[in-house]
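Design request, tokens follow.
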């Protein structure tokens, strides 16, 4: 539909007439009381009749909610009748148990939270004002063509300050939802409604109209390995090594700022000049550079007319006078009075930041050589570095705990609980938070069992963010923005000076980090998540968190891990079966049993008589048979364990636990266990083991006792290498 230009009009806004407002079924109702939203004492309580609903006083709003979501402004809707309809629709979403809403057969039965109501309010404003701009003053005149034009118009994002681009299918669904739902609630509207029987996009699911693909499996991609590994390694280094030092320096700077007064020097008296001369002379005597001005203050100074080439333009004179005089600000116009002494001092000692001048040496990440944790920093540079460490803290906690963004936002300085000592004199670290997703407004209290680095990262973030009591420990910035700040610092002079591996460009957000952890736990059990973090430790604390709070968010993460693990094990079993079909046989003590299992699958497929859809039916039959085999698969670092009979498991015999339901990975001896197999994917591991042992045995300085111990290990590794190669050249036993 092409709308002629002459049809575009603008109608003046005006108040909703009193008789219209009084006729509404919700007239005079307290919005918060009706919705069950608790308001803080003295907080605003919006009435339905108001065109601006102020929800800033709600007690249980999640910390992740933006400040603008606490204000629903219907005043932007030009047509008063449309405005009343919008308020009635949003009220119905928030109060689905109202008797008139319950009478609507297709109305939503679950109450919408304030943030969701705000999102739909924003979209209603745009839709209804679009109709007004097309000259429509009565919703009964809305046609399908108007809906189609609006959909096409909204497919492209047009933002003058934040850029343009295509709208995602999920956002498009939010945009179109109120467009259609005005038809669902039309019997409720007292003044303006669609004509009876009209519903936008009849016969089509709104997900199809929006282009939303409702997949059963998790469609969130994992972070690319080449991005994930250096990101987590850098986050660990920043939080564990640099973080405490940055926090100490940052807190020292804040204490200095608190003790400064706010007076400004108006002129330089003889006494002040003498004191100033003593200050500058002390810097020269100690060989210390004069303090450097912050970049933003330098820009302001140059914008005020200072010469960028002036050798004194970067000197932080205000910091100098604040050392011994009762002033905190020094107007740059007064610098001419002290220019000779300052120029002489700059020529002798130079200029540098005032913070981290005596930085403690730390081990570089790559070669462990000691280096100062930072070069001298200005106040703004220190603040920027503190924010980078804050970003690293949040990314680290998200990466190794799997907490959602809303759960990270709920963390406070009180979240870290006292460590609990468990068997083996090890400690367990817990964080309290609130589960927001899937729960009523305010969420429910929850507890996470996390690794110690994540626990310490939360404590460090609370220091850096100066959070107190119930304040947030993390900045509310999105994860992709925080990762960009971390990547820029790591790839810049600061990170490279400390030997951190550069982080390549690539998308990273909170959902991707959670998905990456789930897949890494499922696919690489016993491997390394990043430098010095063992996946088995992550798996243990995740499982403990699930056992402590079944059904919680940590339990859902573990369930996602188990689903991904099942899928991965099926893929590995299929790959082993296809290798068998192509003549690449498994090796190892359990190879004969695995080959027999695959032969049994072949026989079962031959006996099965498929229907008309022969290929599809056969594929499904094969998948079901392989699933049964995959259920017994346990992936080890250098072999597959087909744990079908506990009584035959060598690890359980050695441990004296023959009735266990899972193998003991730490006691696996795949060269002797009758349920272990080796495949081509394991060849590099065994080749590397054999090569390493050979190097040690060839070293004349290596102890003889150790050589005697390593010789059998080398022979075993070489035997397994030979077996894998032989089995995959078609020469293995049939």
């Amino acid at each position: 539909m092409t709308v002629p230009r002459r049809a575009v009009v603008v109608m003046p806004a005006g108040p909703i007439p009193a008789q219209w407002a009084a006729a509404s079924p919700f007239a005079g109702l307290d919005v918060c009381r009706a919705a069950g939203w608790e308001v803080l004492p003295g907080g605003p309580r919006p009435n339905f009749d108001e065109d601006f609903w102020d929800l800033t006083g709600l007690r249980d709003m999640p910390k992740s909610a933006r400040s603008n979501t606490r204000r629903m402004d219907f005043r932007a809707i030009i047509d008063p009748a449309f405005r009343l309809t919008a308020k009635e629709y949003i009220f119905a979403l928030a109060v689905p148990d109202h008797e008139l809403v319950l009478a609507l057969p297709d109305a939503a039965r679950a109450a919408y939270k304030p943030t969701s109501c705000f999102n739909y309010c924003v979209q209603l404003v745009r839709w209804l004002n679009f109709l007004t701009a097309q000259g429509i003053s009565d919703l009964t005149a809305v046609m399908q063509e108007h809906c189609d034009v609006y959909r096409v118009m909204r497919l492209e994002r047009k933002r003058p300050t934040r850029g343009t681009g295509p709208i995602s299918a999920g956002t498009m669904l939010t945009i179109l939802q109120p467009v259609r739902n005005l038809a669902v609630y039309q019997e409720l509207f007292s003044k303006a409604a669609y004509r009876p029987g009209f519903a936008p996009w009849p016969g089509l699911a709104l997900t199809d109209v929006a282009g939303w693909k409702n997949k059963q499996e998790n469609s969130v991609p994992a972070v690319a390995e080449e991005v994930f590994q250096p990101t987590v390694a850098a986050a660990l280094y920043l939080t564990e090594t640099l973080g405490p030092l940055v926090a100490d320096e940052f807190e020292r700077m804040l204490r200095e700022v608190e003790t400064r007064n706010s007076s400004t020097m108006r002129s330089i008296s003889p006494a002040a000049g003498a004191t100033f001369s003593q200050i500058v002379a002390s810097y020269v005597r100690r060989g210390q550079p004069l303090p450097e001005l912050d970049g933003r203050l330098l820009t302001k100074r140059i914008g005020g007319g200072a010469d960028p080439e002036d050798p004194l333009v970067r000197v932080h004179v205000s910091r100098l006078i604040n050392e011994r005089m009762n002033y905190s600000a020094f107007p740059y116009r007064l610098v001419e009075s002290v220019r000779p002494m300052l120029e002489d001092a700059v020529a002798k000692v130079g200029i540098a930041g005032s913070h981290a001048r005596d930085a403690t040496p730390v081990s570089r990440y790559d070669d462990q050589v000691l280096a100062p944790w930072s070069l001298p920093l200005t106040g703004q540079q220190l603040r920027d570095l503190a924010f980078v460490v804050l970003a690293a803290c949040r990314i680290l906690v998200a990466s190794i705990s799997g907490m959602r963004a809303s759960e990270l936002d709920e963390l406070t300085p009180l979240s870290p609980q006292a460590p609990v000592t468990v068997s083996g004199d090890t400690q367990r670290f817990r964080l309290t938070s609130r589960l927001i997703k899937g729960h009523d407004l305010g969420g429910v209290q929850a507890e996470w069992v996390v690794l110690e680095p994540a626990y310490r990262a939360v404590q460090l973030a609370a220091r850096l963010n100066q959070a107190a009591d119930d304040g947030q420990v993390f900045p509310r910035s999105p994860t992709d923005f925080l990762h960009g700040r971390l990547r820029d610092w790591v790839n810049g002079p600061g990170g490279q000076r400390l030997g951190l591996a550069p982080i390549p460009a690539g998308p990273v957000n909170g959902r991707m980090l959670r998905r990456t952890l789930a897949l890494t736990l499922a696919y690489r059990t016993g491997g390394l998540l990043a430098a010095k973090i063992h996946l088995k430790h992550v798996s243990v604390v995740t499982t403990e968190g699930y056992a402590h709070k079944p059904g919680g968010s940590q339990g859902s993460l573990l369930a996602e891990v188990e689903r991904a693990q099942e899928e991965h094990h099926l893929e590995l079993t299929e790959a082993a079966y296809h290798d068998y079909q192509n003549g690449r046989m498994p090796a190892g003590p359990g190879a004969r049993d695995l080959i027999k299992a695959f032969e049994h699958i072949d026989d079962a497929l031959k006996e099965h008589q498929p229907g008309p859809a022969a290929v599809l039916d056969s594929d499904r039959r094969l998948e079901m048979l392989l699933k049964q085999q995959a259920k017994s698969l346990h992936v080890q670092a250098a072999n597959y364990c087909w744990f079908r009979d506990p009584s035959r498991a060598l690890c359980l015999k050695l441990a004296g636990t023959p009735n266990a339901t899972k193998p003991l990975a730490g006691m696996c001896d795949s060269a002797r266990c009758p349920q272990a197999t080796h495949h081509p994917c394991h060849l590099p591991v065994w080749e590397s083991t054999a090569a390493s042992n050979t190097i040690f045995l060839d070293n004349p300085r290596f102890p003889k006792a150790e050589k005697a111990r390593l010789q059998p290990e080398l022979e075993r590794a070489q035997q397994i290498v030979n077996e894998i190669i032989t089995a995959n050249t078609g020469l293995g036993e049939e």
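Comment from the thread starter after seeing the answer: thanks! The CA atoms of residues 601 and 607 lie 10 Å apart.
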